[in-house]
Design brief:
Blueprint lengths: L1 E3 L7 H18 L5 E3 L4 H8 L1
Parallel strand pairs: 1-2
Length: 50
């Protein structure tokens, strides 16, 4: 399963991440690999992490 997430600083991102985190074990039980993809720059990702 590939999950495309919106920009790092969008209001949707934290809620989507929380939901996928809660469902992660269910996806794995079905044999799914979960991969998250964002298209922001490395500088935006760094700022988000800080």
């Amino acid at each position: 399963m590939i999950v495309y997430l919106p920009a790092d600083f969008s209001f949707v991102c934290p809620t989507e991440l929380d939901d996928f985190a809660r469902q992660f074990d269910a996806f794995r039980a079905l044999g799914a690999e979960v991969v998250g993809v964002r298209t922001d720059t490395v500088f935006t990702h760094k700022s988000w992490m800080e």
